[in-house]
Design goal:
three-stranded antiparallel sheet, 12 strands, Cyt_P450, single chain, oxidoreductase activity, acting on paired donors, with incorporation or reduction of molecular oxygen, five-stranded mixed sheet, heme, globular, alpha+beta, Cytochrome p450, Cyt_P450_E_grp-I, oxidoreductase, about 50% helix
């Protein structure tokens, strides 16, 4: 019987040979396969090592999560709700702009400390396109990225202009403007009538601030124009802008916001130029003698520094544009926020009779009804200080930061160009760190033992549970001035007048909305009545 294999293949004769392959041919054929296997192996390994993106809600194509943010729930509250769902760090898309929202002290510490000089990943503030137009091309302290220019400008603003010695020299100027504003409440027959607390407070704070800027001298029109323009700057910067969400469309300025911002910026520059020219033409730039102490406004301080730097060939204040940018930071940076906090404080006090009585008792003991509040009184008003802190805890937020390089945060990948939002509102109301967090209770800031470092407005606490003005190298540059004005204006309003709700008014509304700052949805109306012993104290 034939072998079955013989049927499948013909027999080999002696002359037939199997084809041979050289080793080189075999290796050449194997190399592509080995490369494919190696590429696959390392890509899998790299994907396992690469940090994942933060979790977050899905959005829609093109517009991202924007449609889901509509409604009565403001952004800070919506972000707190999303943190409850996704954790203390999550991402959210506004069109093609990625936002990373942080809602825990540990992650906040990581953001703020990595915003320092050694690793300035989160050191740049995230501002709308219109803000660059209104800040001399982003040359002000708030807008500049970390670097030599920022350090020079911040030194001028914080150490020279807003330092405690400089602000002490300016106290007579802000006192004069505050007393003048309080006197107008009486002369305009507003006593005993309902007044808009925010409008009144804004006028007082802006007058005090502008008085410190250039002493309130010269054309009153410049004074009033700057106050109006400052409000317009904040209003423009708070508008949702397509150019911010779709940078490729910024050149078209579809909403006309940049055009409007340019017009406002020109008016702002006209005011500063007019005041500076008047000061220089008037020959008022005179140096004081050694050991001589006299009244100086902030413009005088900056002009003297600029003259010194020019004489020394230094670039510490290189141009008049830099000087104007510093003035702009002071004029517009804090007035609205301070006024906003005072409105919230008075709202809380009117709803908490016990706290109001404690504040008045302290004012009576420290100041007395025969005197106005003076600078030397403020350091002894501990309960008032606690009221200010508690108001800031409940009603302040922080500006976003911009990631300037790829990084990680909380174990998640943060791409370059991402906006990082610290939801201070949520941190300040977290029941893990605050007992009965929604309750207005200033006593929580008295007799504290927080790692032997009490909470203060400057963010000087190690646990990052209280950061009303931020912390680290890029803490709000005007925090020192804001703290002084908050205490002084609020103390003066509470000491000079008794306040009550208008007769028949509904219970004070505490609903809010997000518009750069956390603002009251329904403005507070209140009735002032004279509290001091005599109107002559305001003379």
């Amino acid at each position: 019987m034939a072998d079955p294999t013989s049927i499948l293949s013909p027999p080999l004769n002696n002359n037939d040979q199997l084809p041979s392959q050289s080793p080189i041919t075999t290796i050449s054929a194997a190399i592509p396969i080995l490369l494919l296997v190696a590429t696959w192996f390392f890509s899998v390994k790299r994907s396992k090592l690469r940090a994942p993106p933060p979790p977050g809600p899905r959005g829609l194509p093109i517009v991202g999560y924007i449609p889901f943010l509509a409604g009565d729930n403001p952004l800070h509250r919506k972000f707190a709700d999303l943190a409850g769902q996704y954790g203390p760090i999550f991402k959210i898309w506004f069109a093609n702009q990625m936002f990373v929202v942080v809602s825990s002290p540990d992650l906040t510490k990581e953001v703020l400390l990595r915003g320092g000089q050694n690793e300035p990943i989160f050191s740049t503030r995230g501002f709308p396109a219109a803000a660059g137009v209104c800040t001399y091309g982003g040359t002000d302290v708030l807008s500049l990225p970390m670097g030599h220019d920022w350090k020079s400008m911040r030194k001028l603003l914080v150490r020279e202009t807003l330092s405690n010695p400089a602000l002490d020299l300016c106290f007579p100027l802000r006192r004069r403007e505050l007393v003048r504003s309080l006197r107008e409440v009486i002369s305009n027959e507003l006593v005993g009538k309902p007044v808009g607390v925010y409008e009144l407070t804004y006028k007082i704070v802006s007058n005090a601030t502008l008085g410190m800027l250039w002493g309130g001298e010269g054309d009153q029109f410049c004074f009033e124009e700057l106050r109006v323009v400052s409000q317009e700057v904040m209003e423009i910067n708070s508008r949702p802008n397509v150019s911010d969400m779709f940078p490729m469309l910024a050149r078209f300025d579809l909403q006309g916001i940049l055009k409007e911002a340019t017009a406002v910026a020109q008016r702002l520059d006209w005011v500063f130029s007019s005041v500076i020219e008047r000061r220089l033409e008037g020959g008022k730039l005179k140096k004081q003698g050694e050991g001589e102490k006299r009244l100086k406004d902030m413009l005088q301080i900056l002009l003297e520094i600029r003259e010194d730097s020019e004489n020394a060939g230094s670039s510490s204040l290189a141009s008049m544009t830099h000087l104007k940018a510093i003035l702009q930071d002071i004029a517009t940076g804090g007035t609205e926020n301070i006024s906003n906090v005072i409105e919230w404080a008075l709202s809380e006090l009117l709803m908490n009779d016990r706290v109001m009585k404690n504040v008045k008792r302290e004012l009576d003991e420290i100041v007395g009804l025969d005197s106005l509040v003076e600078d030397q009184h403020l350091k002894n008003l501990n309960y008032l200080e606690a009221v200010v802190k508690e108001t800031c805890r409940l009603h302040l937020n922080l500006f976003p930061r911009l990631s300037t390089a790829p990084s990680t945060l909380g174990g998640y990948a943060i791409p370059k160009g991402s906006m990082v939002i610290i939801n201070a509102w949520a941190i300040h109301r977290d029941p893990q760190f605050w007992d009965e967090p929604s309750e207005f209770r200033p006593e929580r800031f008295l007799n504290q033992d927080n790692d032997k470092r009490p909470f203060d407005l400057m963010g000087n606490n190690s646990n990052f549970q209280f950061i009303p003005f931020g912390s680290g190298q890029r803490i709000c540059a005007g925090a020192n001035l804001a703290g002084k004005l908050l205490r002084y204006v609020l103390a003066s309003l509470l000491h000079s007048f008794d306040w009550k709700q208008p007769e028949g008014a509904e219970k004070i509304e505490f609903s809010d909305y997000y518009k750069i700052f956390i603002k009251k949805k329904k403005p507070l109306m209140a009735v002032p009545t004279l509290r001091l012993s005599s109107q002559d104290l305001f003379a």
